[in-house]
Protein 1
Amino acid sequence: MGDAARSAFAVEIRERYLAIARDRWPVSVDPLPDELLSSWLHRLALANGIAPRSFAGALGFDERMWSPRLDLCLPLNLARLLCRQTDLSPGAISAMTMNGGALTALLLPLRDNVHRNRSTWMQYCPQCLAADEAPYFRRQWRLASRVSCFTHGCGLRDRCAACRASIATFDQGELLPQHICARCGFDLRAAPKASVKAAARRLERAIADICRVESAMGSTKTSDAVSRVLRAPAAADARSRRTLKNLSTAERIRCFEALAAKPLDWLVNNMDATGAYRRWMIVAAGGHEAMIARFADFLEQHQTRSKPRRFCQPDADLSGLLTAYTRMMIRYTSSTHIIA
Ligand SMILES: [Zn+2]
Ligand SMILES: [Zn+2]
């Protein structure tokens, strides 16, 4: 951003903000789809004419990474204050946090001292930021199991392409939007596109679905799936001793690409047959929705062949259909080399 754009924001309220805006903050900001609490807080601060670093002081925080910490643990008194000052419901505020949830173990660790080949706390898709009317950071970008954008098909990034620093909007001292690097002023929307092989993106989506579906089922398999995903670097390369969430995004992309070329044993071995089949089929289909669609196609063809002229309820038993479906997926996989 140039000097002209910077000088467009000349006024900043730094002191006694809560005392000045006692009852309700002048500008309210609605959360955007899947927005992370810290992202919303930064946008809220800027909309009200205060830089994120100063907003931390106004809220009584002086520690580093103040807003990413709130994503993980939002004190009740602050949640009440945010509701009161913005008219957002408690549910809308808590929906932006990352605490609780079955996928907490997959969150990238908070650290702002960036070493080469280490993870940072936040990832982003430059094209998503470029498409946003108000650029913001998504909750799903906090997960170590995510390496690409499902919308744009490109790799995520975890550093500024100019200065290699991690995202540090929480420390932004000027009135600049959060797609501007807080360290060097680079526009993150202009970062070069990172590529991820199609097979790795299919595996990534399947893994996201497996974790989501098993967590929705309330199954103990959730922790099993998550712990297997965390150990994925060792499955990709037996010499690796690090867990997935300690790797940089570039390293995790390479890890997923290596896993996509290997058998799926690392995700299904030593499991009961039903659970293993379910994971295996989701991966083979490239995601849960794709698996359901193929299953529906199979049922339709099966019924059409047996009773083509009138509607009828399925007359095959479920276990038989699952077995037949599994055989079909085995043929499909061996013919398209999805896994091997
Ligand atoms: Zn995107
Ligand atoms: Zn930078």
Note: The pocket of zinc ion (ligand 1) is lined by residues 125, 127-128, 149, 151-152 (CB under 6 Å).
Protein 2
Amino acid sequence: MVRSFGAGLWGLTPVGQRTRRKLLRHLRAVMSEVDGQEVHLPGLQYRDRWEQSGRWESFENEMFTLRNRDGQELCLAPSHEEGMVHLVDGRVRSYDDLPVLVYQIATKFRDDRPRNGLVRSKEFTMKDAYSFHASESSLGATYRRIREAYLRLFDDLGLTVAVVEADNSVMGGSRSEEFVAPVENGSHRLRFCRDCRFGVSDEHGDLERFEGGDDCPECGGTLTASEAIEVGHIFELGTRYSERMGLTVDLRDGSSRDVLMGSYGIGVERLLQTIAQQHADTDGLSWPVTGWGSIAPFRAAIVPIGDDESVRETAETLYARCGPDDVLLFDGDRSPGERFAESDLLGIPVKLILGNQFRETGNVELEFRDGQTDYATPGDVPEIVSRFAAGRSGG
Ligand SMILES: [Zn+2]
């Protein structure tokens, strides 16, 4: 699914990119549900705006900086609060224009020490959203709405996450929470509650106050100890950026005030990596299937055994009717065992086997990734397989 290009740099194979594309499509759908508007900002940014916000210095050790041929200083943006303020400045004048929620899915750069594969990438994709408000209550409402939308997203994807209250240093502002996914090999240590998602990590909160097995302070459930990876982070930034960058809005009573902001990030490749890690087994990946569907690279793999005409014809019919863009049809002369192993390694939810069973009864053998087996007529297979699609209707 991935290939290393040196420390902290990763490429995705065609199969990896299929899964990533399904995830991106769902991210966009979730942002539409909360009235987010997609925008696009340049990854290269001049120094002046970062001087205004005061972050050129604070990001110094993590930011890639460069000079162009005219000697001007630029950075490869590690985050886009400054850019988003510039984008809405002048377009947002009155309290009537607010709230506004904009987001982008774009490449970010951080000169971070690589730890644990994709987690500490120097270049990665982030879905970052930013909201602008004329009042604290409006900011709070949007913050809660996006928090709930992200939790639903993680549920759709079959990812277990805890919510860790975080301090708010580099981004600045008042309130912030991290979404942290428990995994076997992570970059943080976590104690979390499966019932209410309460969590404390060694990055934020007093980890040493809790042991695995302790009672959850929120709901009385039981805390679990795990390593973990941060997959998302949301902030009530308040007026930290607008104050310094002069973004104001006119209020109903004729006065004006600094615009309140929130920012809401999700790391795309981290999300893929943690979903993969939480569900892999000794045979390989095992993409989860939820009521929403699955981001598995293919919803099914067709494995024809032998090349008699009825097998070949049925394989082609299934391929056409199960969603040809989303089904892997094995051909070529590799052995059935190799095909089974490859399908399981990629985590494809079901194998459609056309072998002896099919020759004897006309039924397709369905072998699910969890080892369960079932039989169905070729006509019934597309409907069964559709529940493994991304968003069920997607491909
Ligand atoms: Zn709890």
Note: The chain is about 30% helix and 30% strand.
